[in-house]
Amino acid sequence: MATYDLVVIGTGPGGYVCAVRASQLGMKAAVVEKNATLGGTCLNVGCMPSKALLYASEMFEEAGHSFAKMGVSVSAPKLDLPSMMNFKQQGIDGNVKGVEFLMKKNKIDVLKGTGKILGTGKVEISADGKSQVVETRSIVIATGSDIARLKGIEIDETRIVSSTGALSLDKVPGKLLIVGAGVIGLELGSVWHRLGAEVVVVEFLDRILPGMDGEIAKQFQRILEKQGFAFKLGAKVTGVDTSGKMLKARVEPAAGGAAETLEADVVLVCIGRAPYTDGLGLKEAGVALDNRGRVQIDPHFATSVKGVYAIGDVVAGPMLAHKAEDEGVAVAEIIAGQAGHVNYDVIPGVVYTTPEVSCVGKTEEELKQAGVAYTVGKFPFTANGRSKVNQTTDGFVKILADAKTDRVLGVHIIGREAGEMIHEAAVLMEFGGSAEDLARTCHAHPTRSEAIKEAALAVGKRAIHM
Q1: Do the bridges between strand 396-402 and strand 408-415 make them parallel or antiparallel, or are there none, so unpaired?
Q2: By the number of CB atoms within 10 A of the CB, which of 132, 218, 296, 422 ranks highest?
Q3: What is the pLDDT of residue 1?
Q4: What's the farthest any 2 CA atoms get from each other in the chain?
C-alpha cells in the first residue's frame, strides 16, 4: 500500500497548486484525477478555453470594425470556426502539459481514477473496474464545482448547452438565448455575438452581474446593449420546446404574469455552479456538508473528519480559480505547521468581455448595508489620454474609501485591460493603503492606469484632468 504525507483529490487550480506547495515544504504528495487530463474545469472547459475564444473573437471583430478607422485597410475577415477551435485547443493542451510538467518537477504522483475517502488517512482510487487504497497523513478535497442545472430543462450540449457545450459549438447560432446574466453567460455571449449571433439574455433578477457594484452593472449593461445585446431582466425560463427546428423557450416574469415565447437556435444555461462531491464517500466518512451541499470547514480548512481538509469551489466563498489557488497554498502550509492564510477581503474578480469589468473589495451596496461611512472617487476613461488616442473610452474607475481613515475599501473598473489594472488596487488594499497613498504614487504617462490615480485624487475632490 502506497503511503503519502498528502493526497489531494482533484487537479484544478486549487488542487495542483496545493500539491506543488506541499512538495516544496518537503511532503510526499499525490494527486487523484478522474479525468483524462489534469487541470480541472479551469484549464479544460472553463477559464482558459473561454479566454482563448474571447481573444480570438475580439480580434475577428476588431479586424471587421476597428481597423479601417485607424487607417488599416484589410478585406472583410472570414470566420474559420474549426481553426478558431483548434487555436482554443492548442491553448488548453499547452496549459495541461504545463501542469503535467509541474507534477514531474515536484515529484508528485498522479493517481488516475475516482477518489473516495474511506476515513482518516485512507483514500480509495477506482478506475477501469480496478481499485487501490493509499494511506496518507492528510487529505485535501479539491474537487471543484459542476454546472448548475435548471429544473425541467435538459442539457444535451448540442442545442441546449452549458458553458462546456458553448465552448465547442460547431457553427455560429443565428439566435442564442442565454439563461443567466452572470460572468460566464456574458463572456460566452460576447464570444458568439462577435462571431455573428443575435444574443438575448434572460435574468431572474432585475440587474446583470449579481453581487457586483450596482453602478458598475448598470453602466456595463448600457455598453452591452450598445454592442447589440438584448436583456430581459426580472424574468425566468420555465421550459424549452425542442420539437421543432427552432427551440422555443417559455419566458415568464419573475414576479408572475403572462408568458412569452422566444425562439433560438441554441439555449445556453448559465445559472451558476454547484459544489462537486459525487462519489467522494463524504457521508460514509462523516464529512459534514452545509445546507448548500458545500463541504463545511473551520478557519483552517479542516473538515469534521480529522486529517481531511477542503478548498476551492467545493467550500464556501467565491468560485474563482485564484481563490482556490490561495487556499491550496494556505492549507499546505497549515498542514506543514506554518501559518497559512487567505485574505478574503482582497480577492479580485474580472469579467473578460470588451471592455473588461474588474473589482476588488466592497461594493457601495455592501458598505451601505454595513453602515460604513465612505467617500467615492470616480474618473472616466473619456478623460484619459491613452484611452482617447486609442478611441477606447468606454467605462470608468471607481474607488471607495473609508470616510474617516481614507483606507481604500473597494475598487471597481470598467474599461480596456481592467483585469490587469485591478491588481495595483489589490496590492494597495493588502497593505491597508489609503486613497491618498494611491494618489501620490507616480503613474507612467500615457497609460490607462492613470485613471486609477485620478480616481484616487477624486476621492479628495482634486482630480487634475476632470
Answers
A1: antiparallel
A2: 422
A3: 79
A4: 69
Give the separation between CA 190 and CA 309, rounded to whole angstroms.
37
pLDDT tens by residue, 41-52: 999 999 999 999
Identical fold, 3-147+274-335 and 160-271? yes
Exposed, middle or buried, 372 (CB in 10 Å: 0-12/13-18/19+)?
middle
Domain 3-147+274-335 in CATH 3.50.50.60: yes
- Which CATH number is 349-459 given? 3.30.390.30
Estimate the share of the chain in helix, then strand, then coil, as percent rounded to the nearest 5. Answer: 35, 25, 40
Q: Yes or no: say if 209 and 171 are a contact pair by the CB < 8 Å rule.
A: no
Among residues 300, 341, 445, 465, which one is catalytic? Answer: 445
Run of H or E including 236: strand 235-241
The 3-class SS string of 412-461 reads: EEEECCHHHHHHHHHHHHHCCCEHHHHHCCCCCCCCCCHHHHHHHHHHCC
Closest CA to 201 of 187, 216, 218, 215: 187
Q: Provide the 10 A C-beta neighbour count for residue 397.
A: 30
Nearby residues of 321 by Cβ (< 8 Å), 6 or more positions away = 12, 13, 14, 42, 46, 47
DSSP-derived 3-state class of residue 70: helix
> Is 465 an active-site residue?
no
Read off the pTM: 0.97
Q: Report pLDDT for 140.
A: 98
- For 168-182, the pLDDT digits (tens) are 999 999 999 999 999
Provide the CA 394 distance to its chain's centre, in angstroms. Answer: 22
Ordered by start, the domain boundaries in the chain are 3-147+274-335, 160-271, 349-459
- Cα separation, 409 vs 397, in Å, equals 14
Give 177's contacts (C-beta < 8 A, 6+ positions apart): 200, 202, 237, 247, 249, 262, 264, 266, 267, 268
Cα angle vertex 83, ends 81, 88, to 5°? 95
Indicate if the pLDDT at residue 338 is higher than 90: yes
